[in-house]
Amino acid sequence: MQGDINVITAKQEDVKLIRKLSKIKHTIIVMSGKGGVGKSTVSVNLAVGLSMRGYEVGILDGDIHGPNIPKMLNIEDVSLVADDNGIYPALVPPHLKVMSMAFLSSSRDQPIVWRGPMKMGALRKFIEDVYWGDLDYLIVDLPPGTGDEPLTIAQLIPNADGSIIVTTPQDVALLDSRKTVVFSENLHVPVLGIVENMAGMACPHCGEEIDLFKIGGGEKAAKELNVPFLGRVPIDPEVVNAGDEGIPIIARAPDSASAKAFDGIVEKIVKAMEGKEKKGSE
Q: How far, in Å, CA of 42 to CA of 69, rounded?
């Protein structure tokens, strides 16, 4: 929990950051070893799933160069406001708040051409200068890989509750996801588990399952690396449609197989955090 950090012993320049983090119960970092595995889709569905359970949730879109979270929540046209409290994040009623570089860009087609130090500064401001208020969960959606952004977040949020590694079942994706697990552990960020996305697809004609990208690779990697396996999400065209329409599948079609898979992952996360809270109070 972020509230355990001692403000008194912190450097003066870090006091503001620590005070913001102290209002966030749990921080979860969503990572992937490579692009195209559906990491942002997982992030928004987990965040919306948590908010549907009544938790106060924030999403920090940490992908400076390719911020997609606002599109996936249909809040691209939101104009942020600020006052003495800081910058107010975009609100997805009733329990979800969002901060993204997409809100600060002059055009959706304008690329962000920044080197590492500027990205690090932006991520810091997304935490300390944004008026998140009291949150039960902050979901940090990072770009793929093991570069500046995850290193910065690990430095800014040293007491993060853990990371979720998103992969697809094929060997190329698994190779990179295994590196990401080790990377997270090297940064002393506990791995909450692996999510195997795009795992199997039901044939629209006969209903038989088709293993387009194999199946079971994520679960196997989790066992070999001794980290939890959080669940398997099947390929579903409606997940794509839901993302494009700005209504994540967990809210758009809660009875679908994909939504149920995401809800099962949310349940595991909630239980893990409740267990951590209980252990911390003993």
A: 11
- Helices of type H across 73-170: 116-128, 148-156
Residues 267-279: what's their mean pLDDT? 92
Rounded distance between C-alpha atoms, residue 40 and residue 243, angstroms: 10
Strand partners, 164: 30, 193
**Which of these, 270, 234, 282, lies nearest to 25 by C-alpha position?**
270
Class of domain 2-281: alpha beta
ω into 150 cis (within 30 of 0): no
Beta carbons of 224 and 182 less than 8 angstroms apart: no
Do 170 and 217 meet the contact criterion of CB atoms below 8 Å apart?
yes
Q: Tell me, what's the pLDDT at 161?
A: 97
Q: Closest by alpha carbon to 224, among 162, 176, 272, 178?
A: 178
In tens, the pLDDT along 62-89 reads 999 989 999 999 999 999 999 999 999 9
Query: Which residue stretches of the chain are H helix?
Result: 15-21, 39-52, 69-72, 116-128, 148-156, 171-186, 217-225, 237-245, 249-252, 257-281
Phi, psi angle pair for 195, to nearest 5° = -110, 125
Mean pLDDT of the chain: 89
Closest residue by Cα to residue 67 from 83, 88, 95, 90:
90
| Pairwise CA distance, residues 202 & 215, whole Å | 13
CA 147 to chain CA centroid, Å, is: 16
Handedness of CA 102, 194, 144, 24 (dihedral sign): positive
